[in-house]
Amino acid sequence: MTTATTTAPTTTARHPKKKKGVEQLGGRRWLSTLGIILIVVYCLAPFYWMVASALRQPNDQADNSFFPSPLSFENFAAVFGPGVGFGRNLLNSVIVAGVTTLLTLIFGTFAAYTLARLNFRFKNLVAGIIIATAMFPSVSIVVPLLKLFTDIGWINTYQAMILPSLSFALPLAVWTLATFFRQMPKELEEAAMVDGLTRGQAFRKVIIPLAAPGMFTTAIITFIAAWNEFIFALSMVNEKTMKTATVAISQFTGISGFDSPFGTKMAAGVVVTVPLVIVVLIFQRRIIAGLTAGGVK
What we know:
With 297 residues, this protein is mostly helical. It is 74% helix and 0% strand. The protein folds into 2 domains: 2-54; 78-296, MetI-like fold (Orthogonal Bundle), CATH 1.10.3720.
Protein backbone atom coordinates (compact mmCIF):
# COMPACT_ATOMS: atom_id res chain seq x y z
CA MET A 1 0.00 0.00 0.00
CA THR A 2 2.82 2.33 0.83
CA THR A 3 4.45 1.70 -2.53
CA ALA A 4 1.19 2.37 -4.41
CA THR A 5 0.62 5.66 -2.63
CA THR A 6 4.14 6.92 -3.34
CA THR A 7 4.16 5.89 -7.03
CA ALA A 8 0.81 7.43 -8.05
CA PRO A 9 1.67 11.09 -7.36
CA THR A 10 4.97 10.72 -9.26
CA THR A 11 3.15 9.37 -12.32
CA THR A 12 0.52 12.09 -12.33
CA ALA A 13 3.20 14.72 -11.89
CA ARG A 14 4.95 13.62 -15.07
CA HIS A 15 1.91 13.77 -17.32
CA PRO A 16 1.74 17.60 -17.58
CA LYS A 17 5.41 17.75 -18.62
CA LYS A 18 4.89 15.17 -21.35
CA LYS A 19 1.79 16.94 -22.56
CA LYS A 20 3.62 20.26 -22.60
CA GLY A 21 6.50 18.73 -24.57
CA VAL A 22 4.12 17.25 -27.12
CA GLU A 23 2.36 20.60 -27.50
CA GLN A 24 5.67 22.39 -28.04
CA LEU A 25 6.75 19.81 -30.62
CA GLY A 26 3.41 20.12 -32.39
CA GLY A 27 3.70 23.92 -32.38
CA ARG A 28 7.18 23.78 -33.89
CA ARG A 29 6.04 21.42 -36.62
CA TRP A 30 3.09 23.68 -37.38
CA LEU A 31 5.40 26.70 -37.64
CA SER A 32 7.82 24.75 -39.84
CA THR A 33 5.00 23.66 -42.12
CA LEU A 34 3.67 27.21 -42.31
CA GLY A 35 7.14 28.53 -43.15
CA ILE A 36 7.58 25.97 -45.93
CA ILE A 37 4.18 26.87 -47.38
CA LEU A 38 5.03 30.58 -47.37
CA ILE A 39 8.36 29.94 -49.10
CA VAL A 40 6.73 27.74 -51.75
CA VAL A 41 4.02 30.32 -52.41
CA TYR A 42 6.60 33.11 -52.59
CA CYS A 43 8.70 31.16 -55.11
CA LEU A 44 5.83 29.88 -57.26
CA ALA A 45 3.65 33.02 -57.33
CA PRO A 46 5.64 34.75 -60.13
CA PHE A 47 5.68 31.55 -62.18
CA TYR A 48 1.92 31.10 -61.75
CA TRP A 49 1.28 34.69 -62.81
CA MET A 50 3.43 34.13 -65.87
CA VAL A 51 1.42 31.03 -66.81
CA ALA A 52 -1.89 32.82 -66.14
CA SER A 53 -0.85 35.79 -68.27
CA ALA A 54 0.22 33.47 -71.08
CA LEU A 55 -3.21 31.79 -71.05
CA ARG A 56 -5.14 35.06 -71.26
CA GLN A 57 -6.36 36.47 -74.52
CA PRO A 58 -4.11 39.18 -75.99
CA ASN A 59 -6.80 41.80 -75.39
CA ASP A 60 -7.27 40.72 -71.74
CA GLN A 61 -3.72 41.31 -70.50
CA ALA A 62 -4.89 44.26 -68.38
CA ASP A 63 -7.24 41.91 -66.52
CA ASN A 64 -5.87 41.16 -63.04
CA SER A 65 -8.16 38.25 -62.24
CA PHE A 66 -6.50 35.31 -60.49
CA PHE A 67 -7.79 32.74 -63.00
CA PRO A 68 -7.72 33.56 -66.73
CA SER A 69 -11.16 33.24 -68.31
CA PRO A 70 -11.61 32.20 -70.99
CA LEU A 71 -8.42 30.20 -71.54
CA SER A 72 -6.62 31.09 -74.73
CA PHE A 73 -3.54 29.68 -76.47
CA GLU A 74 -3.20 32.56 -78.90
CA ASN A 75 -0.05 33.79 -77.19
CA PHE A 76 1.66 30.41 -77.60
CA ALA A 77 0.62 30.32 -81.24
CA ALA A 78 2.08 33.80 -81.72
CA VAL A 79 5.41 32.70 -80.21
CA PHE A 80 5.85 30.02 -82.88
CA GLY A 81 4.09 31.99 -85.62
CA PRO A 82 5.61 32.72 -89.02
CA GLY A 83 8.36 35.31 -89.05
CA VAL A 84 9.14 35.01 -85.32
CA GLY A 85 11.80 32.29 -85.54
CA PHE A 86 11.55 31.34 -81.87
CA GLY A 87 12.16 27.67 -82.67
CA ARG A 88 15.58 28.60 -84.03
CA ASN A 89 16.26 30.63 -80.90
CA LEU A 90 15.43 27.63 -78.72
CA LEU A 91 17.82 25.49 -80.78
CA ASN A 92 20.56 28.09 -80.28
CA SER A 93 20.00 27.97 -76.52
CA VAL A 94 20.20 24.16 -76.54
CA ILE A 95 23.46 24.25 -78.51
CA VAL A 96 25.09 26.90 -76.36
CA ALA A 97 23.98 25.38 -73.04
CA GLY A 98 24.74 21.82 -74.14
CA VAL A 99 28.24 22.52 -75.45
CA THR A 100 29.04 24.67 -72.41
CA THR A 101 27.95 21.87 -70.08
CA LEU A 102 29.92 19.23 -71.99
CA LEU A 103 33.14 21.26 -72.05
CA THR A 104 32.71 22.20 -68.39
CA LEU A 105 32.45 18.55 -67.39
CA ILE A 106 35.44 17.48 -69.49
CA PHE A 107 37.88 20.19 -68.42
CA GLY A 108 36.42 20.63 -64.95
CA THR A 109 36.74 16.95 -64.06
CA PHE A 110 40.43 16.75 -65.01
CA ALA A 111 41.26 20.05 -63.34
CA ALA A 112 39.39 19.14 -60.16
CA TYR A 113 41.05 15.72 -59.95
CA THR A 114 44.46 17.34 -60.42
CA LEU A 115 43.84 19.80 -57.58
CA ALA A 116 42.46 17.10 -55.33
CA ARG A 117 45.09 14.39 -55.85
CA LEU A 118 48.36 15.84 -57.16
CA ASN A 119 50.86 17.95 -55.25
CA PHE A 120 52.67 20.69 -57.13
CA ARG A 121 54.08 24.13 -56.48
CA PHE A 122 51.65 27.01 -56.06
CA LYS A 123 48.74 24.59 -55.82
CA ASN A 124 46.83 26.76 -53.35
CA LEU A 125 47.51 29.85 -55.47
CA VAL A 126 46.09 28.13 -58.55
CA ALA A 127 42.99 27.07 -56.60
CA GLY A 128 42.53 30.61 -55.33
CA ILE A 129 42.83 32.09 -58.84
CA ILE A 130 40.29 29.60 -60.18
CA ILE A 131 37.65 30.47 -57.62
CA ALA A 132 38.47 34.20 -57.82
CA THR A 133 37.64 34.28 -61.54
CA ALA A 134 34.09 33.22 -60.74
CA MET A 135 33.66 36.29 -58.53
CA PHE A 136 34.16 38.84 -61.30
CA PRO A 137 30.91 40.41 -62.47
CA SER A 138 30.23 39.30 -66.03
CA VAL A 139 29.47 42.83 -67.17
CA SER A 140 33.07 43.87 -66.37
CA ILE A 141 34.51 41.72 -69.17
CA VAL A 142 31.87 42.29 -71.83
CA VAL A 143 33.65 45.23 -73.48
CA PRO A 144 37.12 43.58 -73.65
CA LEU A 145 35.62 40.37 -75.00
CA LEU A 146 33.52 42.28 -77.51
CA LYS A 147 36.66 44.02 -78.81
CA LEU A 148 38.58 40.74 -78.95
CA PHE A 149 35.84 38.80 -80.72
CA THR A 150 35.34 41.63 -83.20
CA ASP A 151 39.04 41.58 -84.10
CA ILE A 152 39.12 37.81 -84.67
CA GLY A 153 35.75 37.65 -86.45
CA TRP A 154 33.80 35.75 -83.81
CA ILE A 155 30.77 38.04 -83.62
CA ASN A 156 27.52 36.19 -84.40
CA THR A 157 29.08 32.79 -83.69
CA TYR A 158 28.36 30.10 -81.11
CA GLN A 159 31.86 30.22 -79.65
CA ALA A 160 31.39 33.90 -78.81
CA MET A 161 28.60 32.84 -76.44
CA ILE A 162 30.06 29.53 -75.24
CA LEU A 163 33.53 30.64 -74.17
CA PRO A 164 32.39 33.51 -71.88
CA SER A 165 29.83 31.22 -70.25
CA LEU A 166 32.52 28.58 -69.87
CA SER A 167 34.80 31.04 -68.10
CA PHE A 168 32.26 31.38 -65.27
CA ALA A 169 30.88 27.83 -65.23
CA LEU A 170 34.29 26.12 -65.17
CA PRO A 171 35.60 27.60 -61.87
CA LEU A 172 32.43 26.59 -60.06
CA ALA A 173 32.62 23.08 -61.50
CA VAL A 174 36.30 22.73 -60.58
CA TRP A 175 35.71 23.89 -57.02
CA THR A 176 32.69 21.62 -56.53
CA LEU A 177 34.26 18.51 -58.05
CA ALA A 178 37.61 19.06 -56.30
CA THR A 179 35.81 19.02 -52.95
CA PHE A 180 34.01 15.87 -54.07
CA PHE A 181 37.24 14.11 -55.12
CA ARG A 182 38.99 15.02 -51.85
CA GLN A 183 36.36 13.09 -49.91
CA MET A 184 37.20 9.89 -51.81
CA PRO A 185 39.89 7.76 -50.13
CA LYS A 186 43.17 7.52 -52.03
CA GLU A 187 43.16 3.79 -51.35
CA LEU A 188 40.70 3.40 -54.23
CA GLU A 189 43.31 4.34 -56.84
CA GLU A 190 46.07 2.49 -54.98
CA ALA A 191 44.06 -0.73 -54.90
CA ALA A 192 43.25 -0.38 -58.59
CA MET A 193 46.90 0.19 -59.48
CA VAL A 194 47.91 -2.82 -57.40
CA ASP A 195 45.56 -4.85 -59.58
CA GLY A 196 47.47 -3.70 -62.67
CA LEU A 197 45.71 -0.51 -63.75
CA THR A 198 47.55 2.68 -64.57
CA ARG A 199 46.61 5.92 -62.82
CA GLY A 200 44.64 7.01 -65.87
CA GLN A 201 42.77 3.70 -66.04
CA ALA A 202 42.05 3.86 -62.31
CA PHE A 203 40.68 7.36 -62.77
CA ARG A 204 38.49 6.31 -65.71
CA LYS A 205 37.25 2.96 -64.39
CA VAL A 206 37.07 3.59 -60.64
CA ILE A 207 36.90 7.27 -59.80
CA ILE A 208 34.63 8.49 -62.60
CA PRO A 209 31.82 5.98 -61.84
CA LEU A 210 31.94 6.90 -58.15
CA ALA A 211 31.96 10.60 -58.99
CA ALA A 212 28.92 10.30 -61.27
CA PRO A 213 26.44 11.86 -58.77
CA GLY A 214 28.63 14.94 -58.31
CA MET A 215 29.27 15.25 -62.04
CA PHE A 216 25.55 14.93 -62.77
CA THR A 217 24.72 17.68 -60.29
CA THR A 218 27.43 19.91 -61.76
CA ALA A 219 26.07 19.28 -65.25
CA ILE A 220 22.52 20.26 -64.26
CA ILE A 221 23.64 23.45 -62.51
CA THR A 222 25.91 24.41 -65.42
CA PHE A 223 23.20 23.75 -68.01
CA ILE A 224 20.66 25.89 -66.14
CA ALA A 225 23.16 28.74 -65.76
CA ALA A 226 24.13 28.59 -69.45
CA TRP A 227 20.49 28.31 -70.52
CA ASN A 228 19.58 31.48 -68.60
CA GLU A 229 22.69 33.45 -69.63
CA PHE A 230 21.76 36.82 -71.11
CA ILE A 231 24.44 39.51 -71.11
CA PHE A 232 26.98 37.72 -73.33
CA ALA A 233 24.36 36.41 -75.75
CA LEU A 234 22.97 39.93 -76.07
CA SER A 235 26.35 41.59 -76.60
CA MET A 236 28.04 39.13 -78.96
CA VAL A 237 25.16 38.46 -81.35
CA ASN A 238 23.10 40.81 -83.48
CA GLU A 239 21.78 38.44 -86.12
CA LYS A 240 18.23 37.26 -85.47
CA THR A 241 18.94 33.66 -86.43
CA MET A 242 21.83 33.39 -83.94
CA LYS A 243 20.11 34.83 -80.87
CA THR A 244 19.30 32.61 -77.93
CA ALA A 245 15.81 32.26 -76.49
CA THR A 246 16.42 34.63 -73.57
CA VAL A 247 17.60 37.42 -75.86
CA ALA A 248 14.79 36.80 -78.35
CA ILE A 249 12.16 37.11 -75.60
CA SER A 250 13.53 40.46 -74.47
CA GLN A 251 13.32 41.78 -78.03
CA PHE A 252 9.81 40.66 -78.90
CA THR A 253 7.78 43.46 -80.46
CA GLY A 254 4.11 43.78 -81.27
CA ILE A 255 2.41 44.42 -84.58
CA SER A 256 3.52 48.03 -84.69
CA GLY A 257 7.10 47.10 -83.90
CA PHE A 258 7.29 49.44 -80.93
CA ASP A 259 4.88 48.08 -78.31
CA SER A 260 5.66 45.22 -75.90
CA PRO A 261 3.50 42.10 -76.39
CA PHE A 262 3.15 41.17 -72.74
CA GLY A 263 1.18 37.96 -73.33
CA THR A 264 3.58 36.68 -76.00
CA LYS A 265 6.57 37.29 -73.74
CA MET A 266 4.86 35.42 -70.91
CA ALA A 267 4.10 32.49 -73.22
CA ALA A 268 7.71 32.39 -74.41
CA GLY A 269 8.85 32.53 -70.79
CA VAL A 270 6.72 29.50 -70.00
CA VAL A 271 8.17 27.63 -72.97
CA VAL A 272 11.70 28.39 -71.80
CA THR A 273 11.10 27.69 -68.10
CA VAL A 274 8.96 24.53 -68.15
CA PRO A 275 11.67 22.20 -69.56
CA LEU A 276 14.08 23.22 -66.79
CA VAL A 277 11.42 22.70 -64.12
CA ILE A 278 10.62 19.25 -65.51
CA VAL A 279 14.30 18.27 -65.60
CA VAL A 280 14.84 19.38 -62.00
CA LEU A 281 11.72 17.56 -60.79
CA ILE A 282 12.72 14.34 -62.57
CA PHE A 283 16.32 14.37 -61.36
CA GLN A 284 15.87 16.03 -57.97
CA ARG A 285 17.01 12.93 -56.09
CA ARG A 286 20.16 12.68 -58.18
CA ILE A 287 20.86 16.38 -57.67
CA ILE A 288 20.49 16.10 -53.89
CA ALA A 289 22.58 12.93 -53.89
CA GLY A 290 25.31 14.71 -55.82
CA LEU A 291 25.32 17.64 -53.42
CA THR A 292 25.62 15.42 -50.34
CA ALA A 293 27.53 12.36 -51.58
CA GLY A 294 30.90 14.09 -51.45
CA GLY A 295 30.53 14.75 -47.74
CA VAL A 296 29.32 11.19 -47.06
CA LYS A 297 32.20 9.57 -48.93
